[in-house]
Amino acid sequence: MSVPSPIDYAALAADIKRWARELGFADAGIAGTDLGDDEAHLESWLAEGNHGEMDYMARHGTRRSRPAELEPGTLRVISLRMDYVPPGMPNAWDVIGDGEKAYVARYALGRDYHKLMRNRLQKLASRIEERIGGFQYRAYVDSAPVLEKAIARNAGLGWIGKHTVLINKRAGSYFFLGELYTDLPLPIDAPASAHCGSCRRCIDICPTQAIVAPYRLDARRCISYLTIELKGSIPVELREPMGNRVFGCDDCQLICPWNKFAQEATEPDFAPRHSLDGPRLVELFSWSEEEFLSRTEGMAIRRTGYEGWLRNLAVGLGNAPHGDEIVAALRARADHPSEMVREHVAWALARHVDIG
């Protein structure tokens, strides 16, 4: 009976990174499971209430910062990133600067990345199994309590910037992250060093001043939280600073000098759908619920729900340049069945009545 050859884990790690690139990932790295400092940072952040209504951030306790508690037996985490900005995009600042248009965060313009990346992670795991046989693993893409940015930093994929977004020295910050938790004792990569220096452009440009200190984000003020995670009324004092940002916000990334190195996406499914890379607010506000559900099928925009979509657009219309078409569109929704939608429409109309 033949004895199985011992696994060369260094060679396997090199193969994993090569397979990852072949599967469409931009980069891959390997991290251990020690996240003690990040656990302390998370606990402090939660204690201050910075997570707002995102109760799931606190619900899972230390499983978020201790991978082996989330997936028993985990020794290493394979962290992977995938660029998401497609080629040929209109200038983001031009869209933000046009008050009649709606700005949708660049990551959300095409297909929702969760299932796509999870399928790629499964294919990567299958390739590993083909090489060494069965092993223990679990794939995650925003689907469980995972400190993905800290893990990616430890895997050498980038550093966490002052805006709390991961930055890669060669590719900026426009990329998604995914993980394979595994019991394989692979060699660990060196963590990435930080290169923000004295720069604070992301802090200064944030429309709602949500970056309350370097590396400290108050989600309750963040436009991404307000337009996606928040299910109720948007605080009145934050509506005007939102401008025309109706799903997410990219300002802190757009201003980051490291994004001059951003790489274009190679995945065609991330291309914009339904001209959402620069649509008119009035046009989106006219969508029926059936149109919303149909046109956002398979997209991250679905997360906000139809009422949240109308709420966000009403704020954008309230901030838009005064015009009869905008007033007419708002009045057409003034009696909407949703109290939340009616309230935001009334706020928007009052702004135009005052102007008019």
Automatic annotation (TrEMBL):
Q: Which residues bind cob(II)alamin?
A: 64, 142, 166, 177, 224, 249-250
Q: Where does the 4Fe-4S ferredoxin-type domain lie?
A: 184-216
Recorded E.C. number(s)? 1.17.99.6
Which residues of the sequence carry a binding annotation for [4Fe-4S] cluster 2? 206, 222, 249, 252
What this protein catalyses is: epoxyqueuosine(34) in tRNA + AH2 = queuosine(34) in tRNA + A + H2O
Alphabetized GO MF terms: 4 iron, 4 sulfur cluster binding; cobalamin binding; epoxyqueuosine reductase activity; metal ion binding
Broadest EC class assigned to this enzyme: oxidoreductase
Entries under InterPro entries matching the protein: 4Fe4S_Fe-S-bd (IPR017896), 4Fe4S_Fe_S_CS (IPR017900), QueG (IPR004453), QueG_DUF1730 (IPR013542)
The note on the cofactor says: Binds 2 [4Fe-4S] clusters per monomer.
> What pathway does the UniProt record associate with this protein?
tRNA modification; tRNA-queuosine biosynthesis
Q: Which residues form the active site?
A: 142
Q: Where does tRNA bind?
A: 231
Keywords, A to Z, come to: 4Fe-4S, Cobalamin, Cobalt, Cytoplasm, Iron, Iron-sulfur, Metal-binding, Oxidoreductase, Queuosine biosynthesis, tRNA processing
Q: Which GO terms describe its cellular component?
A: cytoplasm
Q: Which cofactor does it need?
A: [4Fe-4S] cluster; cob(II)alamin
GO terms for biological process, alphabetical: tRNA queuosine(34) biosynthetic process
Question: Which cellular compartments is it found in?
Answer: Cytoplasm
Mostly located where?
cytoplasm
UniProt binding sites for [4Fe-4S] cluster 1: 196, 199, 202, 256
User: Superkingdom of this entry's organism?
Assistant: Bacteria
Q: Which Pfam families match?
A: Fer4_16, QueG_DUF1730
Name the protein family: Belongs to the QueG family.
What role does this protein play? Catalyzes the conversion of epoxyqueuosine (oQ) to queuosine (Q), which is a hypermodified base found in the wobble positions of tRNA(Asp), tRNA(Asn), tRNA(His) and tRNA(Tyr).
Could you give the subunit structure recorded for this chain? Monomer.
Q: What is this protein called?
A: Epoxyqueuosine reductase
| Species | Luteibacter yeojuensis
Gene name linked to the record: queG
